[in-house]
User: Fold these one by one.
Assistant:
Number 1:
Amino acid sequence: MKMKMIKNQRGYALLIVLLIITVIGIFAPILISNLMNSSIQFEKAEQDIQLQKVKEMGEMYAERALVNASSNQELRGYGFDVSEGSDQASMTIDLDPTTRFHILIENINGTPNITVTPYVEP
């Protein structure tokens, strides 16, 4: 009787191990892809926040330059390109090889309109 019971249980442990390996093999790619997607989303959100801060810094710089500069010549001293007789000033700043932003000030002599456009190369 004992011999018959042992014969029936042969391979049971191997079957359990193979089943566990199969279940892990099925769920592992799903978990790994979710983790990778989370890290990609985090990096994208971090990049968006940094671009927003850069945009705010550009606006502050342009406002300060407008307040301190009493002429187009002084505005050029802040790094802006100003054409004679033009009511616009512009500047492009490269933060690194892939990130830059462009500052455009319109209506210098009246109520200025400041536009900061960040750009990131893929």
Number 2:
Amino acid sequence: MSTITNINKVFDHRIRLGIMSILMVNEYTNFNMLKELSNLGRIFFDYPHTNQQPTNRPLFYILPHALLVIGLLLSIFINIVKFKQFDIAIILMALFSVVYIGGISLLSSYNQFIFPILPILLIWISYTLNNYVIFKINLFSLKK
């Protein structure tokens, strides 16, 4: 009989063993932080909740949601740096979006909960990138 089967039945799941080993090795890691990060991963990238059979469905969410996460992080950084230059409506939209995502990640972590807030997130990201980020593409520099 292997040593893993002799462990208490509460910890027989491999993911639970992985989480317990992370918590035992790293002193600065706590369970709530790991749970919050896994819930955010489930919301944005549709990770499975249990040990169900893996499918290809999360692959269709990864690219658009990765762009959304990058846009969110960039918008949050720009909002912090240029806080005084933003309209109060944009600041309230950003605050509402962050509180909504934080609350949903604490309560329940299903992918469909990101869809009601998606238009507000896209307006916030597009406003921030349109007003405070300049993209320059010089096509004639390659011909020299």
Number 3:
Amino acid sequence: MIIVFIIYNITDKTLRKAFESFDVDKKGAISVETVSTILRMMGVKVSDASLMSIVADIDEDGSGMLEFEEFCDLSAKFLIEEDEESLKAELKEAFRIYDKEGNGYITTQCLKEILRELDNKLTDADLDGIIEENFWR
């Protein structure tokens, strides 16, 4: 849950920047043709028919244009598939850095320190709540 939150924040900013750079008319939406161009630039190969089918599923208002939230939904389909292995490698490396003794786990105290680095406004009660909510289910 915590890692998903971190990744979401990074990805959201990146996607917002990409979306805005392709929304040259500043309409708040991009065309299917623009999406096709973006995917090609990312090295993703998808047929026109597949793209149209995917867009039809995601285009909630049926406008034929993708607003930012719809663009994020579409991107998630491709980002998850493309980045799963690199994400696993990054997470393993991050874990290794914090598992200083090489025990195969990090202490709750270490996790609290990591979370406090991410958001220094978190209180001890907040940290305890996050850990309890996510790890003791």
